[in-house]
Backbone:
């Protein structure tokens, strides 16, 4: 089973590729659509929008989520906004500019054709969401408001207070509930996908665990769509929800789906610093705060323990404004995160443990007045105060970078199909649009683009181009997958060791953060590659999972996820090791310029690293999809 | 205020927690010590610590719903000393911090109590009735396609803001748990109001109000008698004014006596 990577990018000029492809793709006639059954795993922006739209088109859809309601998927936590090339501000925005900013922001490690399509459909997303009743922020004249985000010099971000993800997800969720009521979608809440099933080389179904009864069930379909989000929780501490996991994509990988660029992870610069060892997750403070907040640390390390009000203006180092004058506090995330790390490594960090920098609103409050700041960021300020017990109106916020988003994911072609026929992957779960670094307000855009405007076309082409023999759950492939899940569950429950699942997860997270976090080097990655298999071995010998399989068992749920993270973490480190360059979120300390900026190596590394699973105990096989840049000039990324 | 509150003294607490093995199993309060609790922990992190100790001691950890832990997904929610989400205003259980408690405190932790929210296990309840209320009409029918340009429909800022205030609902169920009648009026009314104040929501406004209110009753939630406990418990501070809007729309929809599914005009 050797994978061949064919991105299936349509021929012709960049701007016309998607239009041409839409016409060239085969259609499924309306009567035949209802004969097809599709599985959608995940109900976030990508999953809910896909499930609702496919049902509207007439397909039979089964949608699965691990939460108790599809409305709770983690897209809901996105705060800042969604980009679209509407050019409502008349400030020079265009599809071409959003395309260029996204390619450049991704440090030239994404596919041109996919990114251009994303920029094209971005405008439709805003129209669609407004039609659904999404209450975007508006000006007094009644038109939509915009703000700026990192990595862009135009105002193209649409927002709904600090709750944009929530509002977009509720819009998609309501569309989904309408389809559930109409019978087009069958919803399976509290169900977790634990295996992908292939019949004759095609994805034909999944095995899930009913998280209430504990029953292991099989579901058949003509195609499977994964919209299961990212793998940031491999670090244990991240801004992801506690339940976010790699299991669905990892199980698919082990069945033949290539995993692309797993080392591309995004460390978000503005999160609330860690307070103690009991910490269960990290909380993001929206990047939109950098529109009005100024980032600084003391110039001298000896001032770092002083009260911020005791540090005079001339003793403060507004390091982003100093190092990157044209983008200043709105420098892209990877750059802002690394700059914060440098300041703290330099002994100038603030707060407990010296792992924090200030984000100061004093100037903005004196310029705009407190009511304006309350209007823009009120809920974020409240959240900050609730967590830290400090008032950001009178004292600068303390922030520090934290794992936030994963650009890597299952490899997909232009049609969003993985290297397994019929397995499609949407949203954060795929690798396709953000290269080595995602710009702010682009995750929501990509999730909805994939779900509302791409997959509804491309899956029709797949269904119309293939023949589907009927399969039932009695097929040997389903029986075998079901038995494998049962056996794995039994094994986890039978170990009865001495360490909790969380203690293993914390230890893995520590290894990943130290060796494969904001800065990486070959020696550290090699150490991680020794430590992770040892930890995995101990896990399977010494983990303690109380309870039984046939009940709601949260320890068992966690154990299955951590077992997969313990395998996946190794692939991440391997990927980081082979990529001997620095680009975007992947910073190899051996490859930097004299002034500490990332040093990309386009000659050798302008490719997508797509890994093939080679079997238990076998090293994975690296495939390279070369990236051709025909429409943008590969330049050194500068925000100075 | 010095940013060094993590150095504050840890606390010893006693928890009285509702344990129930499954939906139809009998349940009861079980006591657990929670020692060495940092005031900077969130309430759920405190439960994590207790659960780690229970697991290590060979006991089953306490099951509770949680996910984002930043107050937006609506998964978490328990009665803490008789108050939905605990003592702090406008705060979900995941955002409540232990500095709201004192050394030596006894804390009673129970699931939401309502006929329409049956207990699944321990502190976890089944809130799928909320999804069915949305299915009854809590949406604007706008199939994916190419609607008009977003700015072709200006919306007065106060209307957009009021829509947003109500759209902020996280569907946690605290309003139901706090209500002496276990009414879902605030939840239902928030969605009705969000969509009723927007021009896009007008065509389905009457059928939406009638269908959602009727479904709410069918699901077994109690009636609203305007105690106002819901708006006090609501972590997103949704105003009880929404219920007035719902009642107006419902009465207008009933008075027009138009069958469900037909266009009833704006109320």
Residues:
């Amino acid at each position: 089973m050797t994978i061949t990577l064919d991105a299936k990018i349509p021929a012709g000029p960049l701007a016309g590729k998607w239009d041409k492809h839409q016409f060239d793709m085969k259609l499924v006639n309306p009567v035949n659509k209802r004969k097809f059954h599709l599985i959608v795993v995940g109900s976030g922006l990508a999953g809910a929008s896909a499930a609702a739209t496919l049902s509207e088109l007439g397909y039979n859809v089964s949608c699965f989520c691990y939460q108790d309601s599809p409305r709770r998927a983690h897209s809901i936590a996105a705060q800042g906004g969604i980009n679209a090339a509407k050019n409502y501000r008349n400030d020079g925005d265009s599809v071409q500019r959003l395309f260029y900013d996204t390619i450049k922001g991704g440090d030239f490690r994404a596919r041109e054709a996919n990114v251009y399509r994303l920029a094209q459909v971005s405008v439709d997303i805003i129209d669609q969401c407004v039609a659904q009743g999404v209450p975007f922020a508006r000006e007094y004249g009644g038109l939509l408001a915009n703000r700026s985000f990192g990595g862009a010099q135009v105002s193209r971000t649409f927002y709904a207070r600090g709750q944009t993800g929530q509002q977009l997800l509720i819009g998609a969720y309501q569309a989904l509930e309408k389809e559930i009521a109409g019978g087009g979608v069958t919803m399976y809440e509290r169900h977790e996908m634990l295996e992908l099933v292939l019949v004759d080389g095609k994805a034909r179904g999944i095995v899930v665990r009913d998280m209430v009864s504990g029953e292991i069930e099989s579901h058949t379909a003509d195609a499977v769509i994964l919209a299961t989000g990212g793998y940031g929780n491999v670090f244990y501490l991240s801004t992801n929800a506690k339940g976010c996991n790699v299991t669905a994509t990892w199980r698919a990988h082990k069945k033949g789906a290539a995993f692309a660029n797993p080392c591309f992870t995004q460390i978000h610069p503005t999160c609330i610093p860690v307070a103690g060892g009991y910490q269960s997750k990290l909380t993001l403070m929206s990047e939109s705060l950098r529109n009005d907040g100024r980032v600084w640390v003391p110039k001298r390390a000896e001032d770092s323990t002083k009260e911020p009000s005791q540090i005079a203006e001339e003793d403060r180092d507004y390091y982003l404004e100093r190092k990157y004058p044209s983008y200043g506090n709105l420098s892209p995330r990877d750059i802002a995160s690394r700059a914060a790390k440098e300041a703290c490594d330099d002994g100038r960090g603030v707060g407990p443990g010296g792992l924090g920098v200030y984000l100061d609103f004093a100037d903005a409050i004196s310029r705009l007045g407190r009511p304006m700041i309350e209007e823009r960021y009120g809920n974020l300020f409240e959240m900050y105060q609730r967590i830290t017990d400090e008032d950001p109106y009178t004292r600068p916020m303390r922030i520090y970078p934290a794992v936030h988003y994963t650009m890597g994911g299952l490899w997909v072609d232009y049609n969003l199909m993985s290297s397994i026929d019929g397995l499609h992957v949407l949203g954060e779960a795929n690798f396709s649009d953000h290269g080595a670094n995602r710009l702010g307000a682009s995750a929501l855009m990509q999730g909805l683009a994939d779900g509302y405007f791409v997959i509804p076309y491309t899956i029709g082409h797949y269904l119309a181009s293939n023949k589907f023999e009927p399969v039932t759950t009695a097929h040997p492939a389903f029986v075998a997958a079901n038995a494998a899940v049962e056996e794995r569950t039994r094994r986890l429950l039978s170990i009865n060791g001495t360490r909790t699942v969380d203690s293993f997860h914390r230890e893995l997270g520590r290894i990943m953060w130290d060796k494969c976090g904001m800065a990486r080097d070959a020696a550290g990655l090699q150490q991680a590659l020794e430590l992770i298999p040892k930890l995995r071995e101990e896990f399977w010998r010494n983990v303690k999972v109380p309870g039984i399989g046939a009940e709601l068992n949260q320890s068992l749920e966690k154990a299955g996820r951590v077992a997969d993270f313990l395998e996946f973490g190794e692939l991440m480190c391997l990927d980081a090791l082979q990529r001997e360059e620095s680009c975007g979120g992947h910073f190899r300390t051996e490859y930097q310029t004299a002034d500490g900026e990332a040093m990309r190596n386009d000659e050798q590394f302008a490719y997508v690293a797509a890994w093939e699973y080679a079997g238990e105990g076998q090293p994975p096989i690296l495939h390279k999809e070369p990236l051709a840049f025909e429409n943008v000039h590969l330049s050194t990324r500068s925000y100075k | 205020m010095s940013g060094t509150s993590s150095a504050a003294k840890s606390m010893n607490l006693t928890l009285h927690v509702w344990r129930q093995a499954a939906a139809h199993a009998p349940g009861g309060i079980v006591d657990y010590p929670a020692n060495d609790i940092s005031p900077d922990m969130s309430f759920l992190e405190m439960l994590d610590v207790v659960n780690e100790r229970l697991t290590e001691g060979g006991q089953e950890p306490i099951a509770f719903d949680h996910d984002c832990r930043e107050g937006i997904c609506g998964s978490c929610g328990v009665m803490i000393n008789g108050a939905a989400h605990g003592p702090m205003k406008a705060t979900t259980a995941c955002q409540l911090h232990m500095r709201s408690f004192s050394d030596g405190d006894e804390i009673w932790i129970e699931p939401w109590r309502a006929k329409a929210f049956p207990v699944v296990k321990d502190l976890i309840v089944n809130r799928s009735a909320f999804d069915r209320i949305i299915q009854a009409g809590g949406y604007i029918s706008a199939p994916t396609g190419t609607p008009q340009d977003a700015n072709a429909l200006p919306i007065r800022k106060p209307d957009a803001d009021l829509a947003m205030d109500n759209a902020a609902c996280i569907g946690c169920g605290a309003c139901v748990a706090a209500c002496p009648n276990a009414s879902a009026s605030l939840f239902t009314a928030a969605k009705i109001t969000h969509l009723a104040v927007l021009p896009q929501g007008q065509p389905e406004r009457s059928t939406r109000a009638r269908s959602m209110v009727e479904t709410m009753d069918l699901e077994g939630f109690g009636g609203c008698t305007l105690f106002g406990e819901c708006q006090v418990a609501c972590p997103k501070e949704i105003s009880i004014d929404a219920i007035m809007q719902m009642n107006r729309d419902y009465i207008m929809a009933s008075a027009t006596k138009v069958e469900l599914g037909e266009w009833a005009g704006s109320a």
Remarks:
- The first strand of chain A starts at residue 37 and ends at 41.
- The CA atoms of residues 189 and 210 of chain A lie 8 Å apart.
